[in-house]
Amino acid sequence: MPYWRLSGFYFFYFASLGALLPYWGLYLESLGYDATAIGNMMAIIMATKIVSPNIWGWIADHTGKRMAIVRLGSLCAVLAFMGVFYQDSYVWLLLVMLLFSFFWNAALPQFEATTFHFLGDHVHRYSTIRLWGSIGFIAAVWGLGGVMEGQGIELLPWILVVLFGAIWINSLLVPEEVAGYLPLDHEPLRQILTQPRVAGLLLVCFLMQASHGPYYTFYSIYMKDYGYSLGMIGGLWALGVLAEVAVFLLMHRLVPRFGLRKLLLASLLLAVLRWSLIGLFPEQPGVMLLAQCLHAATFGIYHAAAIQLIYTYFKGRHQGKGQALYSSLSFGAGGAVGSFYSGYVFEYFGASQMFIVAAGVSCVAFLVAWRYIPRRVNT
């Protein structure tokens, strides 16, 4: 069934993310790199999303071969990542991560477009497929928490190679016809991008991911510095994604009841609260548990609402470009800026200040969404 093949891809893709995001910074720290260097290396992964999805999205929309792009990107990504075994100098690792992420970031936007085509008129059920990505993330981040203790962190590159390989193998199981036929008639892309609601949404997505920069880059190091074990840190990451899964299971009911605009605004406000709690009360385990539960809103509700709005605004052959723009401007540009500023704030002002800055960025995103996302959204 396409459902399980689609779900399997999400499972392995986000399992690899569950190994990469929480632990790659710790692996780089074990090699002797400081916060600025780690922030720059993580920013490279995000920065390629500014360019890569748009290049591959343009190719996919003009050839109609979305799954071919997914397969090629997945295979080249695992081959490129194997360069980490050659040497671990700063410049070499930057180059390896640049090449790896250029191909790795090609796959997900086109796979998202494929999933939405498969769903047809039932796009509100997207979350029931995407939740398997969250389950994969939990399996990786929780399962690796104990393994990564002490010298176990040295195993991380090998684990990532296995997971990246599984992504490529699973992509072979999804036939091209699931991605569907792409119609030739469509309005010019510039007419879509100049609409205030579209430009506003893309800016909101950029700001929301920029606010996540300290979390994705330094959360594990931050918690470790406050005395949390890697097992506890892995559990906190997993708790956040468990909350995300719970929301994904409910989104097909929440969207018809509250609408995409209200859900998006709520997620942005709760992001302000979450980053403030992490920045101000890291020594309080109970508060950290609450902050991680808010991941249900800051990623689960936010992503499900934002990606459905993107699907609504970008039609026909622009569907691939729309998903690519969402990925490049949010996870790409926003993620890169977030990783970049968090490294310097950490180094010169302190770790807690990173999250206070993140809360301010989320607040700006809320104000933009309030102004530009229309009250009535045709879904």
Summarize the structure in words:
With 379 residues, this protein is mostly helical. The chain has helices at residues 2-30, 35-63, 66-81, 90-119, 126-147, 156-171, 189-193, 196-211, 213-225, 230-258, 260-280, 285-293, 295-313, 319-349, 351-372. Helix content is 81%, strand content 0%. The two termini are 26 Å apart.
Strand-helix topology:
Layout: H1 2-30, H2 35-63, H3 66-81, H4 90-119, H5 126-147, H6 156-171, H7 189-193, H8 196-211, H9 213-225, H10 230-258, H11 260-280, H12 285-293, H13 295-313, H14 319-349, H15 351-372
Q: Work out the count of structural domains.
A: 1
Structural class: mainly alpha
- Indicate the low-confidence ranges by residue numbers: none
What is Rg?
Answer: 19 Å
Question: Count of helical segments?
Answer: 15
Order of helices and strands: HHHHHHHHHHHHHHH
| Name of the CATH first level | Mainly Alpha
* Mean pLDDT across residues: 86
CATH architecture field: Up-down Bundle
Termini separation comes to 26 Å
The CATH fourth-level homologous superfamily: MFS general substrate transporter like domains
